[in-house]
# Entry
Amino acid sequence: MLLSYFITIMSVYLNVCDNYSISSIIDNEKCNSTIFVSMVVMGIFAILYELDRKDNVSLSCIVALLIGIYGLIYFNEDLFIHYIFASLVFLSILFFMNHHSYINRSKFLYFLFYLQIFILCVTIVNMYKQCAILYQETFLIFNFAIFYLYLHYLSEQ
# Structure
């Protein structure tokens, strides 16, 4: 799962240039098929992992997140439906983080959850100002990755 996530990150990183957002990178025809394949592989592992955890709320959030990601890859950012899928991605991440913060009662998870909300608000404001949001989106993804890995760490204890 981590390897497929790393491939996606490297594909995006290698195509940063002067892009406005992560969506503008994954819309690029030279890397979106690589990103799609690695996200499908990562999605399979994520679903298997969530099935093993036997938490239907968590599984539903991950499935919604994956549908949103696939929609972002498939639909160009110039289309309105792209923003519906983007909203699905961010809402499913927030629900996932809220659910697990509550279940685990971890101050660190709560901190990451509230940080995610703050960064998302900054991202939305910058998007409406038509400023580049690439770094905010990157930080949102990185923050969620830390959350997900820490959650795995907690479940191993």
Notes: The first helix runs from residue 2 to 13. The helical segments are 2-13, 22-26, 32-53, 56-74, 80-104, 107-128, 134-156. The chain has seven helices and no strands. The chain has one domain: 2-156.
